[in-house]
Amino acid sequence: MASSKTITVEVDDVRYTDDVEPRLLLVQYLRERLGKTGTLVGCDTTNCGACTVHLDGVSVKSCTMLAVQADGHKVTTIEGMAQDGKLAPLQEAFHQCHALQCGFCTPGMIMQSASLLKENPHPTEAEIRDGLEGNLCRCTGYQNIVAAVKSVADGTVYDDSGVSTTAGETETAGVS
Amino acid sequence: MIPSAFDYAAPATVEEALGLLAAADAAGDDVKVLAGGQSLLPVMKLRMADPSMVVDLGRIAGLNGVTDSGDSLLIGAMTPHHVVATDPLIAQHVPLLAQAAATVADPQVRHRGTFGGALVHADPAGDLPAPVLAAGATFLISGPGGQRSVDAADFFQGYFTTAVEEGEILTGIRVPKYTGWGSHYEKFTRVAQQWSIVAVAALVRVEAGTITEARIGLTNMASTPLRAAAVEAALAGGPATADAIAAAAAHAAEGTDPASDLNGDAAYRAHLAQVLTKRAVLAAVGLQAGA
Amino acid sequence: MTATTERSSAEVGKARLRKEDRHLVTGRSRFTDNMVLPGMLHLAMVRSPYAHAKITAVDTAAAKSSPGVMAVLTGADVAGEQGSLPNAWPITPDQKAPAHGAIAVDEVAFAGEVVAVIVARTAAAARDAVERVDVSYDELPVVMDLEEAFTDKVLAHTSLESNKSATWVFDSAEAGTGSSVQDAIDSAEVLIERTFYQQRLIPAFMEPRSTVVDPTGEQITMWTATQIPHILRLMLALTLGIPESKVRVIAPDVGGGFGGKLQVTPEEVITVLAARHTGKPCKYTETRSESLQAGHHGRAQVQRLKLSAKRDGTVTGLSVNLLADMGAYLGLVTSGIPILGAFMYNSIYKFPAYRFECNNIFTNKTWTDAYRGAGRPEATFAIERLMDELATELNMDPLAVREKNWIRHEEFPFATVAGLEYDTGNYEAATAKAVDLFDYQGMRAEQKRRRDANDPVQLGIGVSTFTEMCGLAPSRVLGSLSYGAGGWEHAQVRVLPTGNIEVVTGSSAHGQGHETAWSQLVADRLGVPFENVEVLHGDTQISQRGLDTYGSRSLTVGGMAVLAAADKVIEKAKVVAAHMMEASEEDIEFSAGSFNVKGTDQSTSLGEIALATFAAHNLPDGFEPNLDSDATFDPSNFSYPHGTHLAAIEVDTETGHVGILKYVCVDDVGVVVNPMLVEGQVHGGLAQGIAQALYEEAVHDDAGTLVTGSFVDYLVPSAPDLPHYITGRTETPATSNQLGAKGVGEAGTIASTPAIVNGVLDAVRHLGVKDIKMPCTPSRVWHALQDAKTTGGVR
């Protein structure tokens, strides 16, 4: 039987030391050992991106990494994004732009979007779409996700009206 | 989703890694070398690979990065794709590699996946083998008998098979500089995230309107990456015009042996190779942006 | 309603941001797989690698002694208690169906069918032990192709004498809704005969299915990723022979469904059995590979069509002969999916003769069932493709052919040839708006330019109109179609002593935004702030009655129940208000959350009344304490959203690649409660419909193995693969409900598939291509172009 390894990982600003089986995936460590169930698993072939977290500040798929590989590293999950009860701009933007429906892809989308904006703070719509190529969403058709990321890049997020300002794209005509 | 149990070691040096591989081999362990893990871990999760021992190269210093060694660049085997895609030395001297690396999988995978790991994995649909072959790179391999180097032409030996033997480790790839050459990687997929159905890597040197040399690599046109030798010969010495390039590209499928699968049959791939070669060369010589 | 009730509409129509979002964007989600219970055991399934085989032996000894394994159950172990998974829609009295145990006992009929389950202390231990179960199979011949299955040369089940499950026929001449199709065909000036293939799709919700069952206590509690907690509870009780009252089903956060979680799954039943056998809480979470292989699929039909018309473009009749692939078993509503389409082949058109015949056929594939649109996308695809074929035949503009045949605005209400009554619609308005947003003439000019220039990238304009039947469904209609349940929905509105409102709805959301929309409805109706309304759903102990979420029914049925309950609360409150203010009930007016005595300045608020009814110190004689009401709404008719979609499609004739240059849709979903939510539903529907046209197909090899068994090969598009959608709306209120709403959940999926395929063909038809099967892959498009040069271009 494979022997366990001791790892120390900083997750969302807290240091954890644990014994883990080498085969334990980082996402399983986060979810099952640390209770960080905000990070989700949507596939088994590194396609869907639901499990995206940051490893030392860059996006990785936590289902395609062993927990032992994270030893000595810093991990940020969706649960570490809001600070002092205030949503991170991307979290706020996803809400404002109706960029989520069932919410299952959302943690991964937000984490990948954050990584994308770090590498390219002012992306075009095409660059945003390309930057999200490794994240699948089945609900939104992506348009509002792209809009949310754009709104953060453009600095137009944060509106406390409680009403969407982006849903106005629909042109409506009343017909009796 | 859950791999079989395995023993794990993360050596600090190449020598230590080689020792672990030798010991594992002696003990009859089925050992796998873990680089970025972006291809290995998925197949382990699906239990299509069940190693009893995994040797992780991730803690070895000195295998990661790009260095200038005169007329070539040395790319550490553990250099992540996103570094290859953005490195200024590569952008200056072999932008073809940067462009190809930027098409691998998706951003998260490019953050973890490594240049050397992808080359040793040698997926026929992978995006790095053909450009590396076209560039005539040299592979630096460490093993029990010391270091050896293998030319790209001899490195890719078959479906998922390379010159790296059991007990050996790829440590780096030496790529000649193509400063001033035109280049383009033309990749064709059905959806963005997909492996290449066919792709073409073109390195073209143009002097005074004449193509003096062309090096063309084909992705997924056989069990290994191929050079499109007939195209290269047809281009060399000819004018850098759309007509000449189209005529030369018509030879792209010669000597290929593409597979048939859900994304297309061999005839379709043979056709794609010609279209994509034309587009790649046109873009490389600056006549038309690649699609 | 009484004249003294004034309705405000400050909320309805407003793009309220969602109440559901905060926990989802911060990772405080409550998906089923997040659940952990003390001592919880984990399940892993042993699945058949064969599509059809006799099980001759199952050796579980090695698995049972594997570390951490607590139990291994085989079909034989549970044969006496597992029952047969339910089919709630026997479409004919003589419908045939094989017994369908959750764990196969003697025979497997598709690859991926469960043959044993491991119950272990950890998920890893369970997975490890799967390898140690030794199942002996005798392979049987498989039948994979639907048309071949129809011949009965190879049987999908040895227990059945035929692959035919049922034949269902609708004939307008027999039904008295129209004339004879055969007469129409015999006298046709133009006859269009086509066969279309609706490929197999996989719903591919992002959250893999997961179930946790806690057998402790006096009831079994199940958390599960389902669209249908109420139906599931009833069906579990019937399947397992336990009283319904002993089962509680909770659908916590559910990560998408699209019909794929409208099912009573073997895995849910197995998790109950495992919990019952071990006495411990048990969890099963499928892998994506398992989800793609064994979660139900959708579509999978062969449509043989004959459309008769006059040379002026007037359609005179339509004959539909359908083969529908059931897969290996009948799931919850598998058999009825084609029937949902039967009423929609005539779509927005008024031709007089229609015949529909469907043969439901078994194959050795994963069973099919509801997938977004469920029968209606297939029907819309068929008629909209045929309208384009007719336009081509007659050299008419495709919009002109449609206009010649559609029901004109002034002709509503309209009794259709399929026997439905369309209440309202305005196809002219939606089409005009779409044409305008699209710049139809400009696109036609650009198309001509590219054709004249022999441009390697050709442009096609894809047209699709649609209507659908939403708001499933009037219970009487379901009864007439032999469906096993009604179509009503239930709601409760409770005014709490604090004045806050709790709304309980039987319609359980999984991403649609019910909590937000229902809050808007109730805030308006009761005159309370949006923030003060809490919506509860998805737990059979909280929401005791309901028929759940599918068929674009939530607002038009569930929302109406909520409004009806709120209206009852107002009526009750008036009684108390009159008592408190010593006035007569007739003199009480309700407006903006306050009850006034007519002609005086005396008033009291809903909150004050709620507190009074809670304290119950001084209530009218016979008044029951507390201010709450239940309502059940059964719709009198379906609702009929409609729309016009236009797609500008670029086809690279060198590679066969298809790109979407512009996509415009104008949908008429009636009165809109929250335009932001409506637009979100349209976007998501478009993505799935476009994916059917271009990307997705569940492919099996000849032996029955699913080749597209992971997201590597089952191509769900990501952001760069889809266009920016231009959406517009017209608003023609429905008359079948008091709000005038119609339903939007499936609209985008229904119209976008034919719009895209019509566009692809419009781009290459002049090059000799006549048809391309879905998905229109680059390879298929290129081959069709090659074939056009030789054989006429069908691919």
From TrEMBL, chain A:
Residue ranges of domain 2Fe-2S ferredoxin-type in the record: 5-81
Pathway as given in its UniProt record: Alkaloid degradation; nicotine degradation
Annotated GO MF terms: 2 iron, 2 sulfur cluster binding; metal ion binding; oxidoreductase activity
Bilayer-spanning residue ranges: none
Pfam families: Fer2, Fer2_2
Keyword Transmembrane listed: no
Annotated keywords: 2Fe-2S, Iron, Iron-sulfur, Metal-binding, Oxidoreductase
InterPro entries: 2Fe-2S-bd, 2Fe-2S-bd_dom_sf, 2Fe-2S_ferredoxin-like_sf, 2Fe-2S_ferredoxin-type, Beta-grasp_dom_sf, Diverse_Oxidoreductases
Protein name: (2Fe-2S)-binding protein
Species this protein is from: Arthrobacter wenxiniae
Source organism phylogeny: Bacteria, Bacillati, Actinomycetota, Actinomycetes, Micrococcales
TrEMBL record, chain B:
Protein name according to UniProt: Xanthine dehydrogenase family protein subunit M
Stored Gene3D superfamilies: 3.30.465.10, CO dehydrogenase flavoprotein, C-terminal domain (3.30.390.50), Uridine Diphospho-n-acetylenolpyruvylglucosamine Reductase, domain 2 (3.30.43.10)
MF terms (GO), sorted A to Z: FAD binding; oxidoreductase activity
Pfam short name (any one): CO_deh_flav_C
PROSITE patterns documented for this protein: FAD_PCMH (PS51387)
Statement: the UniProt record of this protein carries the keyword Protein transport: no
Signal peptide: none
Higher taxonomy: Bacteria, Bacillati, Actinomycetota, Actinomycetes, Micrococcales
Record-annotated FAD-binding PCMH-type domain positions: 1-180
From TrEMBL, chain C:
Cofactor(s) annotated in UniProt: Mo-molybdopterin cytosine dinucleotide
InterPro entries in alphabetical order: Ald_Oxase/Xan_DH_a/b (IPR000674), Ald_Oxase/Xan_DH_a/b_sf (IPR036856), Ald_Oxase/xanthine_DH-like (IPR016208), AldOxase/xan_DH_MoCoBD1 (IPR008274), AldOxase/xan_DH_MoCoBD2 (IPR046867), AldOxase/xan_DH_Mopterin-bd_sf (IPR037165)
Aldehyde oxidase/xanthine dehydrogenase a/b hammerhead domain span: 26-141
Lineage top rank: taxon: Bacteria
UniProt keyword terms in alphabetical order: Molybdenum, Oxidoreductase
Single GO MF annotation: oxidoreductase activity
Protein name stated in the entry: Xanthine dehydrogenase family protein molybdopterin-binding subunit
